[in-house]
C-alpha cells in the first residue's frame, strides 16, 4: 500500500518524537537529580535508545520507511534509493519531531531540571559532546557509529529476510542501536542523528533552565556533519556489496 506524503511525514514526525522521548527521556531519568532512576547507569540509557528506534520502526516502517534521521534520508537519496523531492519534507518533519519529543522530556522532568545543579548532566539530556573534549574523536565516533547503524539497518530492512518480516527486522535494528550505545557510545553520547542533536541543542539554548550552562555551539556542526558522512558511506557499502 502506498501512503500519501502527508501520512509519511506524520509518521516521520511522530517516530522521531518517540525516539527523543525514549532516548533522551532515559538520559534524563539517569542524569537528573531526585528522579527514581537517578544513577541507574549506562545500560538504562542504551535500552532507552534501542527501544526508541525499535518502536518507531515497528510502528511506521511500512508507512514512511521510518527513517527518523536526516542522515538516513540523505544517504538513501544520494545512493538513488529515495526520491530527492521528498528529502526536504522528510527532514523538516524529523527536525520538528525531535523538537516535540524533547519538549515532552523537558515538561515531564521539569521539577528535576530545577533541582539539578550539574550543567553537564543537564546538557546530556539534550545533546552530545565528546568525553575528552576532542573534536577529532567526536567526529570519528559519530562517523563510524552512524556508518554501522545505517549499514546494519539497511541490511535488516531491505534484504529479503527483513523485507518479508518487517517486525523481526525492526527488532534487530533496535538491538543494533542498543549495541552501538553500549559499545561506541561512551565517547560522545552518541548522537548518530543530526535531528536528535541539533533540535535539542537549540531548545537547550532557549529554555529557562537554572544551572544549564553553555549549549556548546562551537562543536554543534560535528553531530550534524559526521553522521551524514557516515550514513552516506554506510548506504554506499550496502548498495555496492549487498543490494540485490
From TrEMBL:
It comes from the Bacteria. Its main location: membrane. Coiled coil: none annotated. The keyword RNA-binding does not apply. It is found in: Membrane. The chain crosses the membrane at residues 9-30, 42-66, 87-110, 138-159, 166-187, 220-242. Belongs to the MIP/aquaporin (TC 1.A.8) family. This is Aquaporin. It comes from Bifidobacterium catulorum.
